[in-house]
Amino acid sequence: MTDQIPPAPPPQTPPPVAGTVGSAGAGLAGNGGIGAAAMAASVGRAKEVGTAGAVGAKKAVLSPKEAFKQALSQGSDKESGSAAKENGDIGPSSNVIDFVDNIIENGITLGVSDIHMEPFEARSRLRYRRDGTLKEVEEFATFLHANYSAVSTRIKILASLDISERRLPQDGAIRFDYKAGDDIVDLRVSVLPTSCGERIVMRIMDKSALNMPLADLGFPEAEFAKIQKAIHSPQGMILVTGPTGSGKSTTLYAVLNSLNDPEINLMTAEDPVEFKVEGIGQVHVKDNIGLTFTAALRSFLRQDPEVIMVGEIRDKDTGDIAVKASLTGHLVLSTLHTNDAPSTITRLINMGIPSYLITSSLTMVIAQRLARKICLSCKTEDMEATKESFLSLGFPEDVASKAKAYTGTGCDECFDAGAKGRRAIHEILVITRTIKEAILANKNDIEIGDIAKAKDGFVTMQDTGRALILEGMISIEEFKRILMIED
Ligand SMILES: [Zn+2]
Question: In terms of Cα–Cα distance, which of 316, 325, 265, 318 is closest to 291?
Fold first, then answer.
């Protein structure tokens, strides 16, 4: 991705060293000089204006809530932006620079995954995606709207994009110096011109998500043992499935990290390579030059690997070669977009892979979702949960008649979302002899699921979800959102 970015134009105004601090101080004079908010702005400054950042003292560590409030006061205390409004093309003012640093720094502190900025005719909107849900930060709207083009120019400078190009979409990246050197956080930036101006989405790349130990992913002990057995087999194919945003990459990387060993050759084909991992040969797939998943996989087989990870099985070609690799002494890991584990098998068959090849290569399918956990600070009994609602979720009669469910009403801790933090819900289908027989007998996905439950103790995501409702960890609403998806 980054290698397709046009050369970075130099910032058109020099980094405002003294000016930044002076004007930030002036802007906050009403608050008693350069307060914590001004420091928050300066210490978070991205690399290229680091000289200004060095002026501020190291700021105290703030809780997400404090940081959030501070960012809000920062945004609304700023001048109205009348000057900045006109100068979008000659470089952003220091207030704009502070504003951009703040929305990024606070987004990272709050653990958001994406920052959305959208211009409309009468207003502009800034939204944070947190735990999977978008929420507007209304306090930023006025400043953002008054300075929209200057803010987007600032972001394009940080992302090394062409600031004069306003008609075509651009993709870039920012390496953000979080908390003045505490950590470098990578952001992926997408700029899309709309009829009202440039819509910008910044994805905050969360390295920690790809460094999760397998043991911390929440697999029950028995399931964890099955996974250990499958990933330490010298050959076979393990597929992880689920919709976008279900945490598939986290699971795959946890497996790869647990296998990353000097005695093992690991190769991956990814689209794109989001995080570089030492010890793994990662290939960035580029369809436009013919470096497809299939082409990468073919080449891998001549690179003497033990373990191969291919980002996604999209078609028969990729499927064929993944199957072939897994039959010839390689452990193959990949993903597929299917709703559950049993339907993954029917998907492969529909792709044109013969069932006898599936039964001889596939060892395990892990399907998963990410569920939002009820916020512990505003958790309360869900009074709308009736016996009928439990029955409709598949609870048995005797449980439904006396079960209780919980929900979050929304509070300061969870920014009114009613939920805070997420956990994965998995289902693990081991391709046992019983399942192989079912596949060869052309059973459909529902039949395969029923056979697995009856004979192999298969636990579905819905079973786990129902247990989590009774435990009070997830709400009925969340269960419906992630686990009642129709094909
Ligand atoms: Zn709450």
Answer: 318
Place of tokens 């950590």: 183
Exposure on the CB side of residue 305, measured as CA atoms within 13 A: 29
Tell me whether strands 236-241 and 197-204 are parallel, antiparallel or unpaired: unpaired
Identify the band that residue 421 occupies on the pLDDT scale cut at 50, 70 and 90: confident
Reported residue count of the chain is 487
Residues with CB in 5 Å of ion ligand 1 = 375, 377-378, 411, 413-414
Q: Which two tokens stand for residue 115?
A: 């920052």
Enter the DSSP assignment of 37: H
Lookup: tokens for 248: 């598939």
Q: Rounded CA gap, 437 and 156, in Å? A: 57
Q: 374 C-alpha vs ligand 1 centroid, how far in Å?
A: 8
From CA 216, how far away is CA 266, in angstroms rounded?
22
Per DSSP, the residues of 272-295 read S--S--TTEEEEE-BGGGTB-HHH
Q: How, if at all, do strands 266-270 and 307-310 pair? A: parallel
Confidence (pTM):
0.73
